[in-house]
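Human: My hope is that you can spare some time for a protein that puzzles me. I am handing you a single protein, as its sequence and its fold in token form. Could you go through the record with me and say what the backbone is doing? Take your time, and here it is.
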Amino acid sequence: MIFRLANHADDPKLRSLMRETVVPGHIKLVYAREPDFFVAYRDNDEQTQVIVAEDQGRINGVACRSVRNLLVNGKPSPVGYLSGLRLRASVRNSTALARGYAYLKTLHADQQVPFYLTTIIQGNRTAQEILTSGRAGLPSYLPIGSYLTHVCPIRKSLVPPGVQGEVQIDAASQIPMDELKDYLLREGARRQFFPVPASTGQSSGILRSIGHDHVLVARKQGKIVGTLAVWNQEKSKQHIVAGYSPFFRICRPVINLGLLAGNFHVLPRAGGVLRCGVAALICIRDNDQAVFKKMLRYAFAMASASGLQQLAIGLHERDPLAPALKDFLHVVYRSGVYLVSWEGRPSDDLLGGTLVPYLEIGML
């Protein structure tokens, strides 16, 4: 087996691997990448290297190393991210993982970043035990808490709430771009690893990928007090239901009756697509929960108008905005967040400082 960087000629094999890899859980999902595996990375303007494990022309594994410009202790800094690890069952008990990390270490020698962020889904004990063991030349995995994905079902034909109080909510297309970017840079610095908006006056990176009409901006007395976007990634990423756990197979008809009664979308049959958007650029001044809740109601209405069935909202367990989600119907999925490094322990302010980690769920 050889390890190398993928190129566009590998696209059909990579998409095939993604379709064949099922992520376990009560709802078994396939995270498809149609019609082009690479398009999501190009849209985000991030530097991404796609690593493949190949044996006699067959791709048996894939993982991604990305470099992103994030706010670290309030200052823009390049940070690595490891994501998208997929291995065929036939190689999971082989030396493929250790050899893949040995290859990754050679890429890390370019010294672009001092460390990497990554997440491991809770319940995936095998992956957690292997990756955090430090054996066979693996880097150190240092935990920095849990990442909570709140999946909220979306009602059909949901109407945006009317004007309430002093807060006015508009699309970012109605806001001067420099004003919006200044706000994101200033307020985003209150979170660890918040994405850095481009310095130019033009849209780029995540703002361009989401689209200005899908970024909500809250203003009070003319000043921005919050942002929250609805990121529909269906053109590059799809969630396909591969099946259900025995418990959910039995309960799905009852669950669907309850969802129908509440005017929500039902859970699709195996093979169906689960239309799920993600919340992005969550940046609320002074962690004002009233503003956050109002923006969520607008976001749900925007998601409903787009035909989305669910909206996923990702927050670190220490995020002071998380309690606001108790007011909304949701299911929580928990992942561990780790700093990955070959150079030893990162500084203490990254591991347990006062700044709460922020990860864009749409870029995990």
Notes: The domain at 2-147 is CATH 3.40.630.30 (Aminopeptidase). The chain is about 25% helix and 35% strand. The longest strand covers residues 58-72.
